[in-house]
Amino acid sequence: MMPNRDSLLAEMGITPRWRLRNEEPVGELSQGDAVATPSPVESSPDLGTQWLVLAKQVADCRACVLCKQRTQAVLGVGDRNPDWLFVGEGPGAEEDVKGEPFVGQAGKLLDAMLAAIELRRGEKVYIANAVKCRPPGNRTPGSDELAACHPFLEKQIELLRPRIIVVLGRPAAATVLGGDRAISALRGHRHEYRGIPVVVTYHPAYLLRNLPDKAKAWEDLLFARRILAEEPGRERQIP
After folding, report:
1. d(Cα 7, Cα 143) in Å, to the nearest integer?
2. Could you give the angle at the alpha carbon of 175 between the alpha carbons of 92 and 138, nearest 5°?
3. pLDDT, tens only, 190-237
4. Domains and CATH numbers, the chain
């Protein structure tokens, strides 16, 4: 049974009391899926095969300096037939070790944010990052690094065909929408990526450092949910 709304909002920090979720994430991909030269990803009639090709290309990528210090590349995790796609910045230290995005403190906050709108990791939700390798010291990815990984994210979106994309933070917004606009200028507006609605909000790591903006992130999630409610369903082949 899902927790009640008050407790979930409390976990997001919308009420005076703040707690992090301690639950283990659900719906993890296999080791092969989580790890892997941006060259055009070859087409295949079988989605499962295309995912295997993409995972290997990500694992083998040497297109930028981020490959030199990584433990492994981190492709993404979640439901491959999602309604929601969340795109973050890049793997952190724990993600680099475990091969899954958002498993540290920011990941726990993201899980709380999902639960607040009655979502769960791995259930109609896929989570990815703009870059697939950890930037040293968890620094912001450079424009060349974002560009090197862009074909991988493009292919993920093509395979996933989500009904809505929520971008978390400025690097993810720059990757998905282009340009380099501030989050404050992008929030509260419906954007599009190849016909898919896009909503921009703050990265959970930023929210951990800037507690008052959690209420704004809550508004963004509600905005995204309203947009999704207005979107027609879409047919797709399930791998």
Report:
1. 39
2. 20
3. 999 999 999 999 999 999 999 999 999 999 999 999 999 998 776 544
4. 5-230 (3.40.470.10)
